[in-house]
């Protein structure tokens, strides 16, 4: 059977890294198996769902390259299909109307908790042979409840958690349609997974409690459930569940902060899956290696310092022309328009940067006036070095503007003044780049224009 996986987010808040990992693994499994990946938007919570949240889901997945083969499907557009299946279930006696009010349910729960029993619906309105049901109250619209099997267990072999067995006596009769006829989450999910022929459901372990209920609905409808893999929670740096409330950022913010999509995929892949000791790998390697047998059972903790390190490794390995495109986008946000020098600037500075924003900070110094680091200026820009800086500026006025010619001019200045390299290079770096901490002086100056260098040296 062809593998078919899905990502089914609720657009009730922006999508963060904990959510997007639940898209990455089913996407990767489908791609690694030559299968299909389906995107489904579970938007039945009308009060909390928003188009803005949908946009962030679509934008974040597109940025990370998590392309879907089918969808996005929207549950609110499938209501007729759900009602059709509900009608079939009514005919088959798989559901029944329940007239118990919210107040009656609350009182029932209070009694059960006082008796130290698990709070659950007691089957008051469940029709059974020989049972007399209560009088139907006037003017009350019932909910529809699913006739959960009595006795026995729901068992499945979870690809992460192993064998899970839940007694049916632990499960009450689930509400699958509200008084206005609107179907509920657990019912819609099953109909969707059947219609979309989903073979593997890879999702967060906050859904484990839903799974036995969904399996029973699958079987009532004459279908075998998919294979399940319930992923452990992603924790934030404080050890709390990653969420908007706990300070999680939208996935798209990482793009603004200068992270590479392939680095994000690499980092997210390692938050719950491993391939030996491999830390840095390409998207192609990830898809070649990925399987469900090496998913971790423990909660993974987000570490921004580790993410920055992974991003730095991917930046170093990235072709300079491709990196320059991303840096140019960062520069243009600042109103800076670069030129043909940008790929070479990226090549020179990328080893000391861990985001494209940091690389753009360096690149901007070649296109805009620099602000000197006050502490370094006070330390290096002394009266004693002024004559040497003036001499170097004079020597750089003529001759070819190449790294080799600039290096020779620096050496001649050192010979003429008797200074050591750091005594001249540090003040020149501060004057030209605003800081004494740069790559090789001749390489930096060669990437500036002659006019820039002379103007900045003469400003001393």
TrEMBL record:
A motif ('KMSKS' region) lies at residues 241-245. ATP binds at residue 244. GO terms for molecular function: ATP binding; glutamate-tRNA ligase activity; tRNA binding; zinc ion binding. It is an enzyme of class 6 (ligase). Its main location: cytoplasm. Coiled coil: none annotated. A motif ('HIGH' region) lies at residues 9-19. Residues 2-309 form the Glutamyl/glutaminyl-tRNA synthetase class Ib catalytic domain. PROSITE patterns: AA_TRNA_LIGASE_I. It catalyses: tRNA(Glu) + L-glutamate + ATP = L-glutamyl-tRNA(Glu) + AMP + diphosphate. It is found in: Cytoplasm. One of its GO terms (cellular component) is cytosol. Gene3D superfamilies: 1.10.10.350, HUPs. Pfam families: Anticodon_2, tRNA-synt_1c. The keyword Disulfide bond does not apply. Signal peptide: none annotated. Monomer. Catalyzes the attachment of glutamate to tRNA(Glu) in a two-step reaction: glutamate is first activated by ATP to form Glu-AMP and then transferred to the acceptor end of tRNA(Glu). This is Glutamate--tRNA ligase. It comes from Ramlibacter albus.
